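Protocol step 4 of 6: structure prediction from sequence.
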Amino acid sequence: MKFKQLTALLLLFTFFISCKENSEPQITIQQYLLIDLDKLNNEIENFQNLVTHNASQKEILEQFKKSRLAYKKTEWAIEYFIPETARFMNGPALDEMELEENRSFEPHGFQVIEELIFPEYSTESKEELIREIKIFKANIKQLKTNFEAITLSDDYVLDAVEQNVYRIITLGITGFDSPILQSSISEAGQSVVSISNSLEIINSKSKTLGSIKDLASKAKKYCEENNDFNSFNRAYFITEFLNPISKNVRKFQLEEKIKDIKKTSPLKQTASTLFDQDAFDVNGFILSREYNFSKEKVILGEKLFYDKTLSKNNNRSCATCHNPEKAFTDGLKTNVSLTGSNLARNTPTLTYASLQNGQFWDMRQLDLEKQSVDVIQNKDEMHGSMDAIHAKILLNNEYGALFKKAFPKTAKPEPWQIQNAIASYVRSLNAFDSRFDLYMRGNKNVLTAQEINGMNLFMGKAKCATCHFTPLFNGTVPPSYSKTEHEVIGTPQDAAGKKLSPDLGRYLYNQMPQLKGAFKTPTVRNAAVTAPYMHNGVFNTLEEVVSFYNKGGGKGLGLDLENQTLPFDALNLTPNEEKDLVAFMKTLTDKKYQ
């Protein structure tokens, strides 16, 4: 056969194969997920088989890790589309509480199983372990039913993928969902790869996808080569891999002309990374649109914030206890009431207070509007009257003009607008311009080696970031930011640490035994200038706070506390590590307070 004829036949054969491949329907994201759920189910069945036949702990642990890795391939979709089921597959091993109905549900899933098999597994736990496995399998079956029924459009898939990048940063590499076994690093590598795999189904020919796949591959390799939980360099991993992936996912979205999801969320969909200065939207925490943030409301709210006529005796304003020079705290253990006695609790910072779903230490108010009224009308704090304040404002021409600019659609000031204006001023107090923020945006010269090590400790060995979530560093749970957590840490009554604080915290408003001594997880941002610390101001320095956590909280000190949610085992931080941790927390100070 002549060369030209052979070439023609090869070209014809190649064309035939190409046509055949193009004629085959491309796998859908739905089919892709169902396949991975089958793989997860197979791994769980293998796990069940090993437990049933009394395999060694080593074999059981290895299969458990394989099962978790299989879950990580699907986590991006499960957590986003079916979070109710996800909570009972990979949520904390703590009771799930519905406070409105005053009831709780026992936890299930990987974290419960982890506690049964590690650090030691006994066949005495076999029956309970098999029960948990069967519940897990039932949840997989439910997931398959749900994913077979729903439509997974590109815009929602893209949003789910973006959230998964943030989930890896805030939860995946911190040990949040593997607190004992600490298998988080290898799992994070798998989670990163699932990002590029999911986007490939949308458009496998995208140039930006190539960059994402390359970064994901390098990120996975980095996790495989540096899989020790305590020594893993999270600062490097985020800045070199996850932030660039996040930027490229956004670029991919714009190139593919995939629209943003219409939703109210604290995390803006326009953010290119979790660490953008304007990544968070305070309107994500408001009750309804009329409460939306505006500069005009801030100007009005600032005037009200410093106005002493809001109190009964015209001698106390909001700024009396929330001093702007101290990041809107007062520097006192607890402030003094109008009658001269000490108030029960420490004055928290108002900076970043708008980025949470719970106000006051006991979280008795959901939003800032109700928070301001609570303080103004409290007989020990301001003892004011909203009706009296409203009447004064109606007679004040200066206020009248400011209200007209802030609320142009109403003829005259209304009481709810007073609350909204003060709340709007508080919502303006989020700077996101600390040295930490600059570092995460690419300025590598602003942090020292000690501070970077402190960051890695905060997000790793010290377990701080499992409650104080990056980058808000409060208890508002990422990446949906729809819930703010409380914790029972066993705060002592005084520095001696011999007695537990008698303050029952959230239990006073929701009398469930799990909530005795439960308090909101506040932000660590600006902590360097907001001493003293804890709900009762018991610690004067960050060094004392770190020492308390290093010992395992109240229970670690030997205090009688059955419901402590903070792990009570010692963290075993060295003296130098404690110093590094404090050094890092000082990098969270906003520029104006440095």
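Step 5 (inspection) to follow. Strands lie at 96-98, 103-105, 486-487, 519-520.
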